[in-house]
Structures are given as structure tokens and as C-alpha cells.
Amino acid sequence: MKTDNHTYKTMIDLNQVFQTEELKVNFLKGLLNIAKADGIVADEELLFFKNAAISLAISEDQINELITIAVSMENVIDLNFENKQQAIMLLREGIQLCYIDSKYGEKEKRIINNIAKHLNVSINTLDKIEHWVTEGINWIDRGNDLLSLEV
């Protein structure tokens, strides 16, 4: 789509990356593992998870089942994906999830690093993902600051 000599771009949708039920469930399990990295699954983290699950057309019953299973288990990295794009998408969304409470703590960084290692994602790629997420958060903050310029 073109707008005034600029191309309008959209993000790749989760459904484009995770096309099978198994891949969707693995992605969601990964998010839940990340959410509980600091020992607490905050309401904001659950909302992030539920929104991701809903966008993947996961039923409410299955969402609740995944939450129950994940909360009762230790952090287990048993994630299998078909390609690097899926691994990178989990890490990208997972790091955004970590920032829900405005901080990306050491426990969260440790699980993100463990997941990246398990999925054979290089440190260089992980650094780029972390940088992209941080830039995005800063961009949103600057946009929100614009709203108070003329107040």
C-alpha cells in the first residue's frame, strides 16, 4: 500500500509464521515460560499471552489449559520449531513480553538466552532482536510524549 510516496508496511502476522496447531502451542508455551521467568506471572503478562493466543485462534479452553499446565511446571525449554523465523518470532515477542512491566530483568534475560541457545539462534541475532524491541519501546514512548506537546 502506498501513501504519499511512502510504502505502508505491516508486521508479519503470527499466523503467517506459526501455521500448525503444534507450532502455535509451542510458541505459546515459550511465551509462558518467559512470563514466569521472574517467578511471577503478572496480569499484564497474562493479557499479552491471551492476546497472542486469541490472534492464533486458540480456544478459550485451550488457553486456560496451557496457563494451568505452564504455571504448575518448572521452566522447561522443550520447544521445537521448523525454522529460524519461528524461533526469532518467539524471541522477539518474548522480549516484548519481558518489557510489559517496564524492565527486562536478569532472570528474564537468562531464560531468553537459554531459549536462544536451545533454538540455535546466535548471540548476534539475539542482540539485534533486543535492540529492535528497545527501539520500538522508545519509539512508542516518544509518540506518547507528542500527545502532551500542546497541552
Verbal overview:
This protein is mainly alpha-helical and 151 residues long. The chain has a single domain (2-146), classed as TerB-like (Orthogonal Bundle). Helix content is 64%, strand content 3%. It contains seven helices and two strands, in the order ββααααααα. It has helices spanning 14-17, 21-35, 43-55, 60-72, 84-98, 106-118, 123-146, and strands at residues 2-3, 6-7. Strands 1-2 form a two-stranded antiparallel ribbon. Helix 2 (21-35) packs antiparallel against helix 3, helix 2 (21-35) runs parallel beside helix 5 (84-98) and helix 2 packs antiparallel against helix 6 (106-118). The longest helix has 24 residues, at 123-146. The protein is globular and about 50 Å long. The model has no long low-confidence stretch (mean pLDDT 87).
**Helix and strand pattern:** EEHHHHHHH
CATH-defined topology: TerB-like
Biggest β-sheet strands, sense, barrel:
2 strands, antiparallel
Q: Regions with pLDDT < 50 over 5+ consecutive residues?
A: none
SSE-based structural type: mainly alpha
Please state the CA-atom Rg, rounded to the nearest Å: 16 Å
The CA-CA distance between the termini, in Å, is: 34 Å
Number of strands: 2
Tell me the name of the CATH homologous superfamily. TerB-like
How much of the sequence is in beta strands? under 5%
> Helix share of residues?
55-70%
The top-level CATH class is Mainly Alpha
**pLDDT average, as an integer?**
87
CATH architecture: Orthogonal Bundle
Outline = globular
Number of helices: 7
